[in-house]
Design brief:
alpha+beta, single chain, four-stranded mixed β-sheet
Amino acid sequence: MYLRLSHFFGLIMLLFFVSACRSHQPAPEAPPAPPVVATPPPVDDGFSVRTYNVSGMVMLSKEYCGGAAPSQQDMAINSMPQVYRDKTLYVRQGTRNRDGYSVIREFTTDSEGRFSFAVPPGTYCIIDGEQVEPLDVSKYVSTKFIEVAGDDCLRAWWAECLTTVTLTNADVSGVLMQFHQRCYLETFNPCLQWTGPLPE
């Protein structure tokens, strides 16, 4: 009996010793945390706000420049505005064309004279190609058959938009612009006038 009790108490002491040793073992290390990857801020391209669509049509009419007199019907047909295909125009912000303001959009009409472009809310000035670069009045000099109206006319022409468009919270459609081609002039600048002879 005594031997059994001594064996039992020995077993208890062994279990206690093993338990005590385990309690002093260091706890397993936690797995390392995944690296923190910084998310770069969104790129501000100036047009991250909502944009709206501007659409319309460009037309072209032409003068009768002499020659064999056309019939009344042909004259009427010739004077009627036609669609202006492949015409490139430019967009600046504001209500006037101003030096120092960047061109923010460029668009070209399709085979039906139609165009469209998207911009954020605001007021925009549409101009012709001759109005993109700063005005240099020295480029416009009267010749034998071309008369230049003067510097004041040139400055007023350069600063004037073909049309202005204002967007708030909706698309704008139905914008119409019309050009008139005058005889023997390769420009739509109204300050230049052909004064030479016309074919009879």
